[in-house]
Amino acid sequence: MRFFADSMLGKLAKWLRILGCDTAFAPTIPDDEIADRALREGRIILTRDTLLIRRRSVRENHFFVRGDSYRDQLRQVVTRFAIDPAAGLFTRCVRCNEPLEKIGRQDAAGKVPPYVFGTQESFHACARCGRIYWKATHREEMERHLGRILGP
Ligand SMILES: [Zn+2]
Predict the structure, then answer these.
(1) Predicted TM-score (pTM) of this structure
(2) Rounded to the nearest whole angstrom, what is the distance from the C-alpha of residue 129 to the centroid of ligand 1?
(3) What torsion do the CA atoms of 128, 99, 73, 25 make, to the nearest 10 degrees?
């Protein structure tokens, strides 16, 4: 399942990426380009924009998200597309949507804080931006937060 979130849905895009869903988000590109790219890349457009959905190429290729709260929006998308929140959790770069790759511990040396290096066993990296991810407290907080949004 691949998505393209419109410019109003940045927070939703971020949380879909946390769930591991391939979600494009490009707030500065014009609507017709979003429509084209979504078709070309086989993405369903997630939108709150009633003008955008009138376009012919979007009419049959969108999911209209309701409400201003990203929590409600996330719940709608997860339900509608039967996304298993546990399946892809923390497998994608939140910043650039790239799938994360496991890297050797030695490859993380010097690139993460010494305390993190000393206490963490495994590291993942984004090939595009180079950001290194590891299991940390904020991840557990995110899991709890997701549990509150989506239920157990
Ligand atoms: Zn990245």
Answers:
(1) 0.91
(2) 4
(3) 30
